Automatic annotation (TrEMBL):
It comes from Aquamicrobium zhengzhouense. InterPro entries: Homeodomain-like_sf (IPR009057), HTH_RpiR (IPR000281), RpiR-like (IPR047640), RpiR-like_SIS (IPR035472), SIS_dom (IPR001347), SIS_dom_sf (IPR046348), WH-like_DNA-bd_sf (IPR036388). SUPFAM superfamilies: Homeodomain-like, SIS domain. Keywords: DNA-binding, Transcription, Transcription regulation. The keyword Phosphoprotein does not apply. Residues 13-89 form the HTH rpiR-type domain. This is MurR/RpiR family transcriptional regulator. Residues 138-274 form the SIS domain. PANTHER family: GLUCOKINASE, TRANSCRIPTIONAL REGULATOR.
Length: 274
């Protein structure tokens, strides 16, 4: 039975909202379950309890306990939500990619096919992972900001630097916090400013620290991140969730860059109307 009589989420949106609210407060093993489920929605629809538990590196009993904590009677009830969402959208490129790998192995053309497929799938999932209303609010906040601060370090730096470039070309005041020389620029956060913070698991400590400093100063935050349990989710921010598909240990940034282009163009258009 569900824990404490909590009703089961009726759809994925309700489930993801519950994850966002309680994910950070769960015990360690249940938090591992939450992070894996949030990061791999496409796998939940067809994998068994044993498969998911092994991938999340937890006992099957912990995964069952997680499902109950979320309000489900068990794993099958949670899985049903994902099957209803993804059964009609399951990609049909597996056979093509398998044939290419068998024929070419780790050739450049084989890698190109894999990265292309990962990017296509990530962009296809973007419309489902980003809440349209939160996206609208994010554009409103950024368009009305005195200065837009941008931070995205390590692998998300290309996205942050693109945003800074786009805003500069549109004559929108923006500051890129690059961390060059290990210099912090927290003091530049001011009243009426907004911050775009970009980080994915494993989260970059300096990005989270700047976002926390912004929150303490009352600066509005637009967070581009991957999981409802992200440290940015604990802040009073507008969370735009992006799920990127990995190829090996390399994460494509196709969906994240698409979202960045959407934000920059939408903000530029909105500011011209203000």
């Amino acid at each position: 039975m569900p824990t404490d009589g909590i009703p089961a989420p009726r759809n994925l949106a309700e489930f993801e909202e519950r994850l966002r609210r309680v994910g950070g407060t769960l015990p360690k093993r249940l938090k591992q379950c939450a992070e894996y489920v949030a990061a791999n929605p496409d796998k939940i629809a067809f994998a068994t309890v044993a498969d998911i538990a092994a991938r999340a590196q937890v006992p099957a009993s912990a995964l069952m306990r997680f499902c109950q904590e979320m309000g489900f009677s068990g794993y099958s009830q949670m899985q049903k939500l994902y099957r209803e969402e993804y059964s009609q959208k399951w990609p049909d490129y597996t056979t093509r990619l398998a044939s290419l790998r068998n024929g070419g192995g780790e050739t450049p053309s084989g890698l190109l096919a894999e990265f292309s497929e990962a990017g296509r799938s990530s962009i296809e999932n973007l419309a489902r992972s980003v809440d349209p209303e939160l996206l609208r609010k994010a554009v409103t906040v950024l368009a009305g900001a005195r200065t837009i601060h941008i931070v995205g370090l390590r692998r998300t730096f290309p996205v942050a630097s693109y945003l800074a470039y786009a805003f500069e070309k549109m004559s929108i005041p923006a500051i890129l916090h690059s961390g060059v020389g290990n210099l912090t620029q927290h003091h530049m956060l001011g009243e009426g400013d907004a911050l775009i913070a970009i980080t994915f698991a494993p989260y970059t400590a300096d990005t989270v620290a700047l976002a926390e400093a912004a929150a303490q100063r009352g600066v509005e935050i637009v967070a581009i991140t991957d999981l409802p349990t992200s440290p940015l989710a604990a802040l009073d921010a507008l969370h735009l969730l992006v799920s990127e598909i990995d190829v090996g240990n390399f994460r494509v940034l196709a969906a994240t860059m698409t979202l960045a282009m959407t934000l920059s163009v939408a903000v530029g258009a909105r500011r011209r109307l203000l």
